[in-house]
Amino acid sequence: MSGVPGKPEHMTNPHPPYCQFVPPWLLERLAQPGDRTTMTADPVVQAVEETLRTDIEIRAARAKAPLTTHKATKAAWAVYTAGSKQTLPGKLLRTAGDPENADPAVNEAATGGQAALDLFSQVYGRNSFDDAGAEVIMSVHYGVRYDNAFWNGTQLVFGDGDGQIFDRFTKPVDVLGHELSHAVTERTAGLVYSGEPGALNESMSDVFGICAKQRLLGQTAQQADWLIGEGIFLPGVQARALRDMAHPGTAYDDPKLGKDPQVGSYKDFIHTTNDNGGVHINSGIPNRAFQLAATSIGGSSAEGAGRIWYAALTGTDVGPNTDFAGFAAATVAAAGPHADAVRQAWTTVGVTPAAGSTSSGGTSAAPATVSVRRTGGFAGLTRTGELDLEGDDPRVDDVRRLVQRTDFASLNAQPTAPDAFSYTFSLPEHGEVTVAEPDLTHDLRRLVELLLDTE
Ligand SMILES: [Zn+2]
Q1: Rounded CA gap, 448 and 399, in Å?
Q2: Mean local confidence (pLDDT), 380-400
Q3: What separation in Å is there between the alpha carbon of 41 and the centre of ligand 1?
Q4: How much is the mean pLDDT over the chain?
Q5: Rounded to the nearest 10 degrees, how much is the dihedral formed by the CA atoms of 68, 70, 71, 74?
Q6: What is the mean pLDDT of residues 65-90?
Q7: How far apart are CA 127 and CA 130, in angstroms?
Q8: Alpha carbon of 433 to ligand 1 centroid (Å)
Q9: Mean pLDDT over residues 208-228, rounded?
């Protein structure tokens, strides 16, 4: 996967902003259909497993990749084919201004990419994702039966789908808009891809993706279907789309896919360490707030609520760690005469707009327990200790501070020191991180002391 370009992570972002359209839990579900005896013969399972393997490789490549940015050129966009390989961008097939190609995936990417660029430039005055006219690079036919689309920090990438459940990922225009919007969010608020800010990051992509779709179809907020990924499923799959912004949790209910797990109210917020803190599930909450605001304001979603959301995303009140309440407050502040409608939309989904509200990369959205397990060592004894960060233990403040200022993502190295103790930290949002004793930082040593030396 050395051909995948990337860029260094945002300084405040503990997770790579690698944004994939299909949530990892959905792919995992498809890869485990229950009857293990038939699994290996099932082409969908094979395709999904291949997609999951590739996703892991992309994450690993992104963690190491050097800074590469496409220079602004004359063309607004360029579509390449990866030719069923995973080397990017592949072979150039069409750029802005060229006639249609014989390949429908190329033309779909061109149409969707142009629609997304038009939304940002014609409605919000933004010149490409970087607001400096960067060429949008898109690669289609990525991998074999690849069940996903993503922004890798440099370009957009689209798979062909497995041919049985998922169709081409270029088919729904909002998928193009969704992925390009990840690039916009990255270059503006820089919302970390974790917990509440991560769910907001996901929601921004659905919001501007749906605005691009409705604009292309000439629909008002009231006329629109509010479906994300409509047409991505092949016939026979019991699904209207991948997400429903108006009715989160109702987009699909299928024996193979399971039921749409999105939530649409803050009281139902899912606390999980999966999917970067449930970013694709909890995004249903801000998605529904946008849908309610857009229909209440009326007319074009892009020009009504969309302008307000864009102003919030690009304004000074929203940053990498802004949570739902903070973002809600920023939209109310940007809403002018529509402030009441916007406030009411957030209130309906259970979010109370609160100025200056931020979260620490989503730690508040995760199980609030930190634990450490010491294993290895010559005698092979195990010791464990844990702490509830929401309890009244006197160690809570010290442990919180140490956890917050440690970059755990950079520590997950392979412990190689023979006979050394190995410490496995289990953390909100980070999952498990194992560090060999010689590699412990001063802060981590202190954290180990606080968590283990309590008996
Ligand atoms: Zn996304």
Answers
A1: 10
A2: 83
A3: 30
A4: 86
A5: 170
A6: 77
A7: 7
A8: 25
A9: 98
**Options 15, 141, 280, 430, the catalytic residue:** 280
Query: Would you say residue 291 has pLDDT above 60?
Result: yes
Residue 15 annotated as catalytic = no
- pTM exceeds cut of 0.85: no
Q: What angle do CA 156, 157, 158 make, to 5 degrees?
A: 130
d(CA 112, CA 218): 15
Place of tokens 């260094």: 8
Tell me, in angstroms, the distance from the centre of ligand 1 to residue 198's CA.
9
- Going from the Cα of 359 to the center of ligand 1, the distance in angstroms, rounded, reads 20
Q: How far is ligand 1, taken at its centre, from the CA of residue 152, in Å?
A: 11
Q: Name which of 266, 125, 109, 112 is nearest 199 in CA terms.
A: 266
**352: phi then psi, degrees, rounded to nearest 5:** -100, 115
Q: Is the pLDDT of residue 197 over 50?
A: yes
To the nearest 10°, report the CA torsion of 75, 81, 87, 88.
Answer: 20
Q: Which of 141, 172, 137, 196 is nearest to 22 (CA)?
A: 172
User: Which one is catalytic: 9, 135, 179, 186?
Assistant: 179
CA of 420 to the centre of ligand 1 (A): 40
Phi, psi (deg, nearest 5) at residue 140: -105, 175
Q: Pairing relation of β-strands 136-140 and 77-81?
A: parallel
Angle separating helix axes 104-118 and 173-187, nearest 10 degrees: 50
Domains detected in the chain: 19-280 (3.10.170.10), 367-452 (no CATH)
> For residue range 156-185, what is the model confidence (pLDDT) as tens digits?
999 999 999 999 999 999 999 999 999 999
pLDDT band at 25 (very low <50, low <70, confident <90, very high): confident
The pLDDT score that the predictor gives to residue 20 is: 77
Give the percent of the chain with pLDDT over 70.
85
Angle 57-63-65 from CA coordinates, rounded to 5°: 95
Quote the strand ranges of 122-214, DSSP E: 136-140, 149-151, 156-158
Residue 166 CA to ligand 1 center (angstroms) comes to 17
Please answer whether residues 140 and 79 qualify as being in contact, where contact means their C-beta atoms are separated by less than 8 angstroms: yes
Token pair recorded at residue 455 = 């008996």
Other CB atoms within 10 A of residue 56 CB: 12
Active site residue 390: no
- Average pLDDT (387-396) is 85
Residue 232 contacts by C-beta under 8 Å, 6 or more apart in sequence?
Answer: 161, 166, 167, 169, 171, 172, 175, 241, 242
pLDDT over threshold 80, residue 36: no
